[in-house]
Amino acid sequence: MDDAEIDALLTEGGMGVLSMSAEGVPYGVPLSFGYDGHDRLYFVFLDASTELRKESYAEQTTSASFTTFDIGPDGSWRSVIVAGPLDRITIDEWDTAREAMADNAYQSNLLGEYELQENPNVWRLEIQQRSGRAVGQP
User: Fold this and answer.
1) CATH number of the domain that residue 60 is part of
2) For the chain, how many structural domains are there in total?
3) Count of alpha carbons within 13 Å of 36, Cβ hemisphere only?
4) Among 28, 9, 11, 12, which residue's Cα sits nearest to residue 20?
5) Residue 80 class from Cβ within 10 Å (0-12 exposed, 13-18 middle, 19+ buried)?
């Protein structure tokens, strides 16, 4: 896939799997995401568990990867994998993150229920690597 096709799937996808690693132990979690149309993905970690597993992995990982995909009714498919550092955003970045998630995150209506705090539980993946593959007719 070329860059335009990768951007299209990141814009249309709205859902995928964030993969992280801490102390050599991998952890993949399905998440809704927002894409800024350039080089950033945003994730809101809602309903945190008491052990804060997502947060703990996100804080410890040096490079995360994210996969989104689409499967057509005829069996064709396309997928995109992006990778880069994962950081928690600051309150100043909330508007940018919220806009990206409102544009294409799966169930972006949940953002209205999310109470913004001084330290929002929103994470940004800076895309440093990207690849995409399509098989069949999308």
Assistant:
1) 2.30.110.10
2) 1
3) 16
4) 28
5) buried
With b meaning 16 or more CB within 10 Å and e meaning fewer, what string describes 27-40? bbeebbbbbbeeeb
Beta strands in 45-128 (DSSP E): 64-71, 77-84, 86-88, 122-126
Q: How far is CA 74 from the centre of its chain?
A: 27
> In angstroms, rounded to a whole number, what is the distance separating the alpha carbons of residues 13 and 68?
6
Show the domain range for 105.
3-135
CB 65 within 8 A of CB 81: yes
Cross-strand bridge partners of residue 34 = 42
pLDDT digit of tens for each residue in the chain (138 aa)?
999 999 999 999 889 999 999 999 999 999 989 999 999 999 988 765 556 788 899 999 999 999 999 999 999 999 999 999 999 998 888 888 888 888 777 765 555 555 555 566 889 999 999 999 999 975
126 close to 40: Cβ distance less than 8 angstroms? yes
